[in-house]
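Exercise: predict the structure of this protein bound to 3-isopropylmalic acid.
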Amino acid sequence: MAKTMFEKIWDNHVIHSEPGKPSIIYIDLQLVHEVTSPQAFEGLRLSGRKVRRPDLTFATMDHNVPTKDRFNITDPISKQQIDTLSKNCADFGVTLFDLDSIDQGVVHVMGPELGLTHPGKTIVCGDSHTSTHGAFGALAFGIGTSEVEHVLATQCLQQAKPKTLEVRINGKLKPGVTAKDLILGVIAKYGTDFATGYVIEYTGEAIRGLSMEERMTVCNMSIEAGARAGLIAPDQTTFDYLRGREYVPQDEAFEQAVAAWKQLTTDEGAVYDRVVDFDADSLIPQVTWGTSPGMGTDVTSRVPNPADFSTENERKAAEKAIEYMGLTPGTPMTDVTIDYVFIGSCTNGRIEDLRAAAAVAQGYKVSPNVTAIVVPGSGRVKIQAEKEGLDKIFIEAGFEWRDAGCSMCLAMNPDVLKPGQRCASTSNRNFEGRQGRDGRTHLVSPAMAAAAAIEGRFTDVRDWNFKVKQEA
Ligand SMILES: CC(C)[C@H](C(=O)O)[C@@H](O)C(=O)O
Ligand code: SF4
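Solution:
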């Protein structure tokens, strides 16, 4: 019978299933960070258990790491979480990419970069954005701390089988329109729960045209659409990205792996439980105006009027969000001024993201009213960026150049907004207080964030490209 990619990976991993009950599936890789693992390791200790497969378990610290002066952690809770992870990894024999390792970084940047993420694997982490790894055609999803413990102890997990949803992206992205705009556009169109209970497979011409890093941006935000996971079929782009990475089979073994990975793609005639379409051709740069990733619009558009929403719930939600965000309905998005810019996170903290931001910033100055920080997703991203001179471009333009970590994506470390501050952010969540109490977050692409830093307000990066050309 014709199968979808999800069904193939699922069937390859089911150890036990009974009708009407969740299945037990095998997990090929568990990634661990300091926030959701302490109780899991403690649970093992209390029951006298070991980590069953330390060789399939890899850890790093990211959420609590200061991006300035990383070894000087003054917050007692952050310090405790980080020290606890170090001790747990030492006690249980788990490989840790510690603060002094160049591989330390946001867990979802670190995994793919090291080649730990492969097509066809099942991957879990106590973190919702584990969906990022689906860009490689891995079934990757976030789990809770008790499940982290269960996987540490058994390398297995109980899971109800999700349904399948094809998100077909037709056409091609236009210049200045990025993978971030694409996923923001999809979520703005279909809502933050349209994929609840499903694993998304992104298909279509626009997806095939994306680089691995762009695919990761798309899959990263699957969770913001409610999905259990997001998948993209592996292809030559995937294999080229993986070849030669540290934890990937080498030489002949790699070619054999590629042959197997090619079999994973959805069969002709396989049926998804649901299909939605999206048109990439007409997409333009996006910016969110509200407090959920689905409250987004075209940068050329305006802050919406709550009265224009069709249901009472939507009207109320929009009213509340607009009030929290300190906006006025009808204001053009390009009139909204900002105080802060954050370029980084597991959504947009990779080398291509930094290149895109640097290309916009080069030769310009950050607006005097704006504080702008650039935070590489990992130590390796930082080193690569410095090799290319991107750090100099950013510093010259007035951005701060930081060390790897989650940083201002969420307020668990010293990088936080002050109450009322407004931030153009390349991260994935704009919830109330996400970047600091009463902080206001607008989600955008790296190029849009860099242009906003310079203008001091949102600006259509497509005009920016035009302006830069005119001035050249
Ligand atoms: C702290 C962690 C559990 C959380 C998550 O699960 O995603 C964080 O990474 C986030 O982005 O909100
Ligand atoms: S960068 Fe943000 S979204 Fe990603 S793991 Fe860290 S806190 Fe979560």
